[in-house]
Each structure stands twice: as C-alpha cells, then as structure tokens.
C-alpha cells in the first residue's frame, strides 16, 4: 500500500512553472527503457518530469519475481500521495498504460492541470467487449492520449466507436503498438514515433501549466 515512502525520480530542468508526473505500466517499472526515454526526452524539451513506482513493482524489483498489480484502491492512493508531495505547482499527471489509466480515474477529483496517457488500455487484448472507457465519457481534465494505430489495447479502428469527452485529444502514432513502436515494414521508426509523441506532450504540458 501507499506508505509515505514513495520514491519520486526526477528528470529535466530545475524549477519551472509546472511538472509532469508519470507512472509505469503493469509489467515494467519506472526505469524501463520506455519510461527512461520519455522522462529524458521530455526533460530535454524543458519539462520537469517525476516518476514513481507502485508498491507491487517495488516488490518485483527487490525480489526479481513477477507480481500482479495492487488493488485499484492502493494504486489510487499512490497517485494521491505523489500529487500531494508535489503540491504548490500545476501538475500534468499520467503514464504508460496502467499508470495512465489510474491517473485518469483520479484526475478530475485531484484538480490537476492535465492528463497524459501513453498507450491507454481501452480493453484487454483480444477482449474488445471489456472496455475501460465509462469514465472517459465525462472526463473534465484536459487530456492527451498518445496511441499507436495498431495498439491491441485499443486501435484506430476501434476507438472511433467509443464515447469520449471533448476534453480528450488522441494523437495517433502511425503503425504503433502498445509502446508506440511501429513495424520496420511501415517505414516509420521507434525514435520517430516516440519523438513525435514527446513533442506533442511537451507542447500540451506547457499549455496546461500556464
């Protein structure tokens, strides 16, 4: 559970008018190549970035053994703790997959400046009927979702059928999977998709934190 000992890992410039707070996906922690790349890339674009890990991921890192994510109530409390630790500045919150989904559940009640989701898990792979979209219809927080067009958790072809709040903007990354990575045959590159996403996130964060 959230225990008051949440580690916040910082990247990017000191100071600034606001910050971006990111949580990891279900299977890899805040120091995964994906999370490192986005924290460092956004930091280079002038955005202060903070990362943290949920308790189950800290336990996985310590033991080397896989664990399931904590119950949703604990994940929410971790987000609340991270936001409380950074009180006093405008915050954009979000993260990869699970991290972004939990952030989306508490964004409105937390009165944050914005929300960024990197590969939102609209449904489990192969289970399109099990949508995780009900709260997205009425979301008030300005939101940017960066989504690969062939993401098995919610592709370009599928998302057009969902009812999403007008506060949500979806940036499509061509041929991207759940980590926004394209196939070589597409003519796109991982660096190209990731850099496009970082440019848009930096622009969105600066605007939200004004």
Task: Examine the coordinates and then state which fold CATH places here, giving the name of the CATH topology.
Answer: Rossmann fold
**Global structural class:** alpha/beta
Query: How many whole angstroms does the radius of gyration measure?
Result: 16 Å
Helix content: 25-40%
CATH architecture: 3-Layer(aba) Sandwich
CATH secondary-structure class: Alpha Beta
Q: How confident overall, as mean pLDDT? A: 95
Summarize, please:
By secondary structure, the chain is of the alpha/beta class.
Task: Identify the notable features of this structure and list them briefly.
210 residues; alpha/beta; Rossmann fold; seven-stranded mixed beta sheet
Q: Could you please describe the fold and organization of this structure?
A:
By secondary structure, the chain is α/β, with parallel strands linked by helices. The chain has a single domain (9-208), classed as Rossmann fold (3-Layer(aba) Sandwich). The protein has helices at residues 33-44, 55-63, 72-85, 98-110, 156-159, 190-208; strands spanning 9-11, 19-23, 49-52, 91-96, 114-118, 143-148, 168-173. It is globular and about 40 Å long. The termini are far apart.
């Amino acid at each position: 559970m959230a225990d008051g000992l949440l580690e916040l890992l910082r990247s990017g410039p000191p100071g600034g008018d606001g910050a971006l707070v990111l949580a990891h996906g279900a299977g890899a922690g805040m120091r995964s190549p994906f999370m490192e790349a986005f924290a460092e890339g956004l930091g280079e674009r002038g955005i202060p970035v903070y990362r943290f890990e949920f308790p189950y991921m800290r336990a996985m890192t310590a033991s080397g053994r896989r664990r399931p994510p904590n119950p949703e109530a604990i994940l929410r409390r971790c987000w609340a703790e991270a936001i409380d630790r950074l009180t006093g500045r405008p915050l954009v919150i979000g993260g990869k997959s699970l991290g972004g989904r939990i952030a989306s559940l508490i964004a409105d009640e937390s009165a944050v400046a914005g929300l960024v989701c990197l590969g939102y898990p609209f449904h489990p792979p192969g289970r399109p009927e099990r949508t995780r979209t009900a709260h997205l219809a009425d979301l008030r927080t300005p939101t940017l979702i960066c989504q690969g067009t062939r993401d098995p958790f919610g592709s370009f072809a599928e998302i057009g059928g969902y009812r999403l709040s007008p506060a949500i903007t979806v940036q499509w990354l061509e041929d991207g999977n759940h980590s926004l990575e394209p196939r070589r045959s597409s003519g796109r590159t991982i660096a190209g998709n990731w850099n496009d996403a970082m440019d848009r996130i930096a622009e969105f964060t600066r605007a939200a934190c004004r």
